[in-house]
């Protein structure tokens, strides 16, 4: 992580970029898992995706400030 920061750019922008990327990937993964592999409804899949995105963003943020 420190190597990426040393390349250039703002630390805060990179941190929030990683948090957003982590949340988006977690949401997409959970949506696809629920919707297509577990045959859940679209509403249920979106709720699970939102829940996992928030959890993933929280974890990524906690890791980024260490």
From TrEMBL:
Keyword Membrane found: yes
Transmembrane regions: 12-33, 45-61
Keywords: Membrane, Transmembrane, Transmembrane helix
Superkingdom field: Bacteria
Name by which UniProt lists this protein: Uncharacterized protein
Species classification: Bacteria, Pseudomonadati, Pseudomonadota, Alphaproteobacteria, Hyphomicrobiales
């Amino acid at each position: 992580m420190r190597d990426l920061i040393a390349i250039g750019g703002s630390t805060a922008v990179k941190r929030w970029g990683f948090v957003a990327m982590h949340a988006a990937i977690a949401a997409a993964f959970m949506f696809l898992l629920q919707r297509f592999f577990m045959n859940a409804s679209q509403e249920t899949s979106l709720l699970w995706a939102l829940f996992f995105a928030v959890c993933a963003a929280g974890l990524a943020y906690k890791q980024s400030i260490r």
